[in-house]
Known about the structure:
Elements: E1 2-4, H1 8-20, E2 25-28, H2 36-48, E3 53-56, E4 71-74, H3 81-89, E5 98-101, H4 107-119
Parallel strand pairs: 1-3, 1-4, 2-3, 4-5
Amino acid sequence: MIAFFANRDSARLTTEVLIRRGIRAAYVFGGSGMSRKLQTEVLEKFRSGEIHMLLATSVIEEGISIPLVDLVMNVHVPSEVKSRRQRAGRTARITSGWVLHFIMDHRFDLIAFYSVHKKL
């Protein structure tokens, strides 16, 4: 499973909670806070099955080959059609899968979700 977050702090904090609960999880994000080497190591652990849940920012929306992803969760709803398509495409590499969108009870998530949905 891959869960997409709007920012690295949300991904990192959620990962820490999951690990404390015994779930094999890790996070990956771009920018200066995480080296390319560390990003690659985390992705390799996910590909090999050592990590079951990968929490990420938009850094892995495109250009990353991860063949077996059953579930993509948009914890923070993407506000662009391209992002939504690329995230959903993570499940279609080898087999079909599921995409879930978490729509929080506030206006921004609803507007973003329906705006992108209409364009699709």
